[in-house]
Structure formats: C-alpha cells, structure tokens
Amino acid sequence: MSFCTIAHNQYKECFHQCRCLQTRKVDFTGGEVEKDSVEIAADRLMYSHALDLCQSSGFEEMCGNPEECIGRYHSAQMLLHGLCLQATQDRDRDQLLKLKNILDQRLIFLEKQVHSTTTATPFAT
Predict the structure, then answer these.
(1) What is the dihedral of CA 62, 83, 13, 103, to 10 degrees?
(2) What InterPro entries would the database entry show (predicted)?
(3) SS3 79
(4) Alpha-carbon distance 26 to 73, whole Å?
(5) Rounded CA gap, 83 and 75, in Å?
(6) The pLDDT of residue 59
(7) 68-101: per-residue pLDDT in tens?
(8) Which helix (H) or strand (E) covers residue 71, if one does?
C-alpha cells in the first residue's frame, strides 16, 4: 500500500470519528421546533457537506487522483449554488458566491488537466 493510500484511509477514519462525536452533541429537547430553525439547520448541513466534499476532493487531488475529485467538486458547486439562490443576507450570498467562484476556477483547471493527460498519451508504434 502506498503512503497516500494509508494516509487517505486514516483521514477517512478520523473524519468519520469526528462526525460521530459531533452528532452526539445534538440537543434532543423534545420541544416544538420552529420552521426557521429547521431551515437554518438544513442550510448549515448543506454548507457543511459542501465543505466536506471540497476537503475530501482536495485530499484526493493531493494523492494524484484529479479525475476522482471532479464529481465531488461539482456536487459541492451545486450545493453552494443552491444556497446562494436562497440566501437572504447579502453578506451570506457574497461569501457563498466567492466560494462557488473559487470552485468554478478549480474545476476548470482540473478538467483541463485531466483532458490534457488523456489526449497527451503517446501512440503505440
């Protein structure tokens, strides 16, 4: 097994353990839940998931697998786009657009990189 594979597996295990610890801290009050708080919680989950996708994609990219991370970056990009459309605060919308634009640039770079490596393969003689 290569170092990157071992490090990636350890990263995924640590990430999973952190998620488990975070979910244990959830407050189960049993009371009425306001609609606004549910929407905010859903938005936070979507945002958190988009960031998680970006982190795991970045790690895959570091391990030399750019083609595997493009799909995750696309998913994160779509989540951020959806959050931008429903953001009610200008500051939130600006921050989400900034992140989305960074992802757009990253995707363009990766797609060019993957395309150039697939078209630059030497012909067999």
Answers:
(1) 0
(2) ATG1-like_MIT2
(3) helix
(4) 28
(5) 12
(6) 84
(7) 888 889 999 999 999 999 888 999 999 999 999 9
(8) helix 66-86
Radius of gyration (Cα) for the chain, nearest Å?
19
Look up residue 45 and give its two tokens. Answer: 């989950």
Residue 4: partners with Cβ closer than 8 Å, 6 or more residues away: 62, 63, 64
Domains for the chain: give ranges and CATH numbers: 41-113 (1.20.58)
**Residue 76 corresponds to which amino acid?**
A
**CA-CA distance, 110 to 58, in Å (whole number)?**
11
Q: Give CA–CA dist 13/63, Å, rounded.
A: 17
